[in-house]
Each structure stands twice: as C-alpha cells, then as structure tokens.
Design brief:
Two copies of one chain form a homodimer. The two termini of chain A are 14 Å apart. Chain A has two domains: 3-192 and 363-451, Aminopeptidase; 195-248 and 294-356, Alpha-Beta Plaits (2-Layer Sandwich), CATH 3.30.70.360. Chain A has helices spanning 3-12, 14-26, 37-50, 119-136, 158-164, 221-232, 253-260, 266-273, 284-293, 333-346, 370-383, 399-403, 432-451, and strands at residues 54-58, 67-72, 78-84, 104-106, 109-111, 142-148, 173-176, 180-181, 187-190, 193-204, 210-211, 298-305, 314-315, 318-327, 352-356, 388-390, 393-396, 411-413, 429-431. Chain A has 452 residues and is an alpha/beta fold. In chain A, strands 1-2-6-3-7-18 form a six-stranded mixed sheet, covered by helices on one side. In chain A, strands 10, 12, 14, 15 and 17 form a five-stranded mixed sheet that branches. Chain A has a three-stranded antiparallel sheet with strand order 4-5-19. Chain A is globular and about 80 Å long. In chain A, helix 1 crosses helix 4 (119-136), helix 1 runs antiparallel to helix 13 (432-451) and helix 4 packs across helix 13 (432-451). Chain A has 13 helices and 19 strands. Chains A and B meet through strand 10, strand 11, helix 6, helix 8 and helix 9 of A and strand 10, strand 11, helix 6, helix 8 and helix 9 of B.
Chain lengths: 452, 452
C-alpha cells in the first residue's frame, strides 16, 4: 500500500470524518432500553452502503436488535470483522460533564457514550476502509462485517443468529472489538476469551424465619449455603467439583512464550488492590498463567437473614449466593451446571437449588495464526513498538458463538481504547490521537493480512 | 391462707383493680426512646408505697432508666421478684385496632402495649399482694422487688447495678417475669435460660470490589468468610471451636425427668416450619435435650457483594456474617469471643475480624428448689393441673446478672401470658381471665413458699 496517500487522505478529510464519528455518537442506541436501536442499525447500514458494500439488516427475533451485515471487496483472504452498534445506558446522567449523546471535544479527547465502546472502533474501521478505497483502489481482500446490537445485554441472540447464518461467515481470520493501550501506553493485542457460567445458589430450609433459639431443631439456610459453597472450593483454592478440572489444558508453547513477555506491574497492582501478595503467593509466569488460563469459581454475592445494624437473633429461612465460573474450552456453561448439580447432590446438598443465567463458552485462539501475525506486524509499523501479545483474555465474551460455527476461525482484538476511557461509565472518551492512529493501523492490518 | 376471703376481695374490687391495671398501661414507658420512663418509674414507686412497702428509686447511670426497689413483709423466707416497667416501641401504629397506650377491653381480652410484657404480670403480682394484706393480714414472708426499666433494650445496666447492690438482694428464691400458657392451654413453669454471645464476623480482602476476572490473583472476601464459617461448625452440626464443647454438662436426673414430661407437638411444629424432620433426625427426649441444654452456633445473616437481580461479575472486597451462640453455664460471652479468636487464628483466618455485641450468661437453675416446688403446688391448686415443668429456656435473658451475685438463687418464671399475646407486636393482649386467675395464683404461691 501507499501509506503516504492513505495518511494524506485521512489528514485532508479529518474534519468531515470527525463529524461522521460524531453522527454515530449523536444517535442513542441503548440495548437495555431499546432506545434508538432501529435508527442506529439503519445509520450503520447507510454508512456501509456509502463504502459500496452489500448491506443487509438481518433480524434476530422480531422484537430484538437486528444484525447489520456488510460484505466488501474481493480477494484470496477473507477478514471477518465483529463490532456492535449498541451502547450501555448513560446513567447516572448528572455525572457527565457534557451530555452523553452530544459528542464534545475537550483537551484532545472526544467525549460521548460509545466514543470507545464500540462506536469509536466501528467508525475507525469504516474510515480506514474509506481511505483505502479512495487512495489504494480495490480492497486487497474480502471483508465480511457483522455488527450486532445486543452486545451490552449479553449478545442474547447472537449464538442463534450465527448458527442460522454460518454459511455466510466463512473467513480466514477475525478482527474482534475492544483492545487498545495499557496504563503505560503499550499497545495490546488479545486473542481469545474465557467462558463464563453465572449461577445463583438458593437454599430454603424452613418455611419462615425462626427465633434463633430453635437452632437445635431447625435447619439454618445460611449454614446449608456455607457448607454447600465450601464443598465447591476449598480454602486452598482447589475447585472440588468432580470432572471440572479435567478440562484444563496446559497452554501451548507459543502461548507460554507470549506470557513470558507480558509486562505485569505486580507491585502497582497489589498496592492498588491493598494486598501484600497475590492469591497462593502467585507471581511472574505463574500468576499470568493462572490469570489467563485457569478456570475459576468466584462468590460474587451472599444474602441471608439479618443484614442491618446490631443484632437480630434470627434463624434465616433462606440464603442465596451468586457464583461465577470462568471457563476454559470445552467446559461449557451447560456442562458446569450439570457437574455442579451432580456434585451438590452427591455431597448431600439436594436442597440447594441452582438458577443459571446465560453464559458464554471459552474461545482460546491460535496465537500463531496469520491474522495474529498480521496484527502484530501492523502494530510495529504504526506504533513503532512490539505490541503486548496477550494469548487469552481473563474476561468473557460472545467470541465462541462466532468462531465455533466456522471452524474455529482465529480471532484478535486490536482497538483504540486507553486505560482512562471510562467505558460503561460517565464521561466515556477516546483521545483523538488514538482514533487517528487507529485508522492508519487498520489500513496497515488490511495490507499485512492480505499479503500474508 | 383463707382463699375464700382472698378470692372474694378480688371479685369485689375487680373494677377498681382493672382501672389500676389500665393506669399502668396508659403510661407509655418505651426503653428504646426513653418516652415516659421517668413517669413510669414514679408510678410504680407510688403504687408500691400504697402497699406499705419501703420503696426506693435507685439510679443506674445518670441518663438511664432507674431501678424501682421495694421491700415488704417479714418472715423466715425471702422471695425476690423480678419485673420490668419498660415496654417495646408500639410501632407500626397503623396495625393496632385501638391505640397502644389507650387500654381497651374486647371479647374478654385487654389490649395495650405492655398488657402482657410486663405490666400485666407486674400488676397481677401487686394486686395479689394487696389482696393478701387486706384479707390475710401480714405477709408470711419477706418480699424484695426489683423492677428495672431497660429490659427491652438488653438490661444494659442491670448487671452493674446488681453487682453494686448485691447485699440487698439476698433471698431464698426468685420469681421471674414471663411465662404463662402454651397453645393447648397448659400452664408452664420455666427455670433458667441459655446465655447468648452475638458477634459479627467481617472480612475485608481487597481495597475495593474488583472485576471477577481477577479471581486467579485477588482474594475473595466472600470465600474467606465461607471458609471461616465452615471451620466453626461442620455440616454434621458439630461446633469445632476448640474448648467450646467441654462446657457442656449432662442434664441432672431431675432435669431429665422434667424433659420426659414435656409435651412437644413434634408433627405440628414440623408442619409449621415446613420440614420433614428435626435437625439430625432428633425426636422425643433427644430433641428436648438439645433444645433446652445444647449450646448452638447460628448464622443469623450473610452479606457480601452483588445481591440484586441477575448477574454482576464482581469479586467482593468485603463480606460479613452475623452469628449467635446460645450458651451453657460457665461458657460466658467473653470466653466464646476468646475461643473464637484463637480458633480463627489457628485455622488461618487472622483476616476475619470479630465485632462482639452485648451478651448474656446462661443461668441453669436448681429445678428441685423450694421456690420451684412451691410454684408447682400453687399451679395444681389454682389451675387444677400439673404444670409443664421446663427445666431451662432455649432463649436468653439477664437472669444470671441477678442470681449469680446472690449465690445462685433458684429462679422460676410463672406468668399470665398465652400463645396469642402478641408480645412485642401490635395488639398485645391478655385474656382478663388469665389476669384474674393470675392474682389467685400469686396468692397461692406466697402461701406455698412461706410454708415450705
């Protein structure tokens, strides 16, 4: 590619493109309430059409946000791009310095709901494609672009949609949403995600709260819950659910190699968290391996009986816990619920009910795939640094729903966010420089992936 | 005693005495707010004076409710009587059919806050003494009467007051407040109480709530609490605190004999609680022995992290539990806190903080003492039935503070309450017949105890 003409185009059209970015931010699109979802899907589709794409707005269910699907270019390689056009609710509104849907530039940052997550990234990619076509001619590869509108409410229909449309999705690599720069300004590339299974455990031991003097005769829901939880993980952090740990595999040599180069500021993190050492004294490679590749079992919340000031001598009838499990591949949310049920029954806790919420499967990607290598080379070209290569994310997302149906397509997240982007919070923002560089990065990525 | 003249006096003065009862109920005396406490103490003292008693209003601390102390009569025996002149708050007021401090008679019941607990019993006893003196002449024994004004807020100064005035309190037996008739109309006598130690356990694991994807590195306060609790009692209901169970003694032969005659409606209770069997399959004597004589450890409440609807993937920084321990003699609240601290430290839970609240010591009484036998004979005389003899209460109260300083004086509770008295609730009431019979019962008790 001719980077000079590409960069010049972006510079010369800066004002107009920024206005386009603002148009995306001005249109509310709150998945949780439905506000502006239809209008936003139409706006995205119109914008894709101006790129010369074949665009479809494809429904998920009659009442849900549709998927915007676009195809552009031709070539030996096909790049699948995933973004979402919905945003988190903007509340609490009083904490915004300027209104969330009136984009404002201050001190070189653009502020609005969605400025980063995920309209900022979507626009960056659209503008890069526009600049490519205006300055380099035809795209050197085929792009398939999936933009969903329910990411902020758990991508509730994505899995089903992808299953129905898997024939369309075939590709050689996928560029995911998210990613950007860490606290020290280091550019990060992330491959894969852990899965998640979120459940509520509920015990109802007696009909109504009793006077605690009845404790020698009546079962205590809180004790039942404590013992059931204790049977799930011991105080040495061993998850005791039979069959759970057999899904854990050692990271590959390439994944381990990446872990060795991840700069983790251990002392800074520990100070921030107010602890003297990480769990089990973990440090260095050991800590990174656990963070990125170990399944977990976390008590996210406990509720039972008297929680006010002072004393109330009550034997609680009911107790609940919220528990999340971060998962490795093949350990699906369904399997976890099944193993957990069997474990509780076998351990004498048939009285402990499991309420399971929607979850995600894990997707650990091939960290040596061409799309990953291309993303890495593009980072060296644009940012002049070797990016931090994160072989897997400790968090979770709907990546598996996309890649699994199309033969485990390798996925990489390469974004424009930064450590103070306030994603999901008031005053969400992106430094304009990240957006400018991001467009050049996408151009380089297209170039590198097409050549690879 | 001449029961005919005694009973005739009560009948002939019924209207006047009932008006006197109502005067007690009209005067608010809410310990929690202080409302009417001073006026109520003065009213009790004036009433004692009309009986010809030596009366003193003795302060506890300058800002707290005083003790009303009265001495009447002479004799070889001294009967100590314990009552309290304070009441629970009347709220929620809208649930009262008639205002809480405007006593009303409906369907043979008298309704007002304190009608049962404890003004009803105090008045019953005062009127019995009046009738005795009016019809039998001098009292056949000495009565020492302690009426405190802080029972409903945990008798916070009683212990100290008794310690300072123990010389005055010497007696041969004590008539406690409370008691009456069970659901089937059986009259009950109760001796002794369990103690109680109430604590909050608190864990702060990290500085602030973290994203749950950090679980491989950051300690989870909720897990720490679960494991700490699990170390306190196992799922077979064994309390594991080192040194705790050594305080447990077998009930005496006389106590066991009493247990064998307690009619426990097991199926009714289980149906009411919605359970198929009591804890550990307990039944019969085994269930009664545990209920009345076993120490306990009860989780009264749990709080941590996300407790709302749906999911929040949070690793909670803090978790707390409220725990009460019902105690046997010599296992004092201070000892429990000390044993618990040592147990937690030894078990690796130095991070679990103990916040301890005021507690009570246990007081298991001599169930064959003359005051108990006298109370039993009086019941047979007035109610024509052998009372249910309950050797100890599964609940807790300030009994130890009174009896311990005066050589373990035996205590018996013999009251006028019933199973629908709504004590501490709106529409507190007493059937007037219970009050009429109660006065005759107190006359018989004085007679029996003096003769014994």
């Amino acid at each position: 590619m001719n980077t000079h003409t590409f960069d010049t185009y972006l510079l010369q059209n800066r004002e107009r493109l920024l206005e386009d970015y603002k148009d995306f931010l001005r249109q509310p699109s709150v998945a949780a309430t439905g506000q502006g979802i239809t209008e936003m899907a139409a706006l995205v589709a119109r914008r894709f059409a101006t790129l010369g794409a074949d665009v479809q707005i494809i429904p998920t269910t009659p009442d849900s946000a549709p998927v915007v699907w676009a195809e552009l270019g031709e070539g030996d390689k096909t790049l699948l791009i995933y973004n979402h056009y919905d945003v988190q609710p903007a509340e609490p509104l009083e904490l915004w310095e300027t209104p969330p849907f009136e984009p404002a530039v201050r001190n070189g940052h653009i502020y609005a709901r969605g400025a980063s997550d995920d309209k900022g990234e979507l626009v960056t990619r659209i503008h890069a494609v526009e600049a490519w076509k205006a300055t380099q001619g035809a795209l050197p590869l085929k792009i398939k672009w999936l933009v969903e509108g329910e990411e902020e409410v758990g991508s509730v229909h994505l899995h089903q949609w992808v299953e129905q449309h898997q024939g369309m999705l075939k590709s050689n690599g996928c560029l995911w949403e998210g990613g950007g720069f860490d606290e020290k300004g280091r550019f990060e590339l992330t491959m894969g995600v852990k899965g998640i299974c979120y459940v509520q455990l509920r015990v109802k031991a007696v009909d109504h709260d009793l006077h605690s003097s009845r404790a020698p005769l009546a079962p205590d829901a809180a004790w039942r819950l404590v013992w059931a939880l204790n049977s799930i993980k011991d105080n040495q952090e061993n998850i005791l659910i039979d069959g759970y740990m057999k899904y854990v595999r050692e990271p590959s040599a390439a994944q381990m190699e990446m872990l060795q180069h991840i700069p983790m500021e251990e002392e800074e993190i520990k100070n921030k968290w107010g602890i003297h050492e990480f769990l089990k004294g973990r440090s260095g490679l050991d800590a990174l391996k656990a963070l990125y590749f170990a399944p977990t079992a976390t008590v996210c919340g406990l509720t039972s009986g008297w929680q006010g000031m002072g004393t109330k001598t009550v034997l609680p009838a009911e107790a609940t816990a919220k528990v999340d499990f971060r998962l490795v591949p093949d350990l699906t949310p369904d399997i976890v619920v099944d193993l957990l049920r069997k474990h509780l029954d076998r351990s004498g806790f048939t009285d402990v009910e499991i309420v399971s919420y929607d979850g995600y499967r894990a997707e650990f990607c091939d960290v040596e795939a061409p799309i990953v290598k291309a993303a890495e080379r593009a980072a060296k070209r644009i940012y002049g640094q070797t990016p931090v290569m994160i072989p897997n994310s400790p968090g979770s997302g709907p990546m598996w729903s996309l890649s699994s149906f199309i033969g485990g397509v390798p996925v990489v997240s390469a974004g424009i966010s930064h450590s103070d982007a306030r994603v999901h919070s008031p005053n969400e923002n992106i430094p304009l420089q990240n957006y400018y560089d991001g467009m050049r990065y996408i151009g380089a990525l297209i170039d590198e992936f097409a050549k690879s």
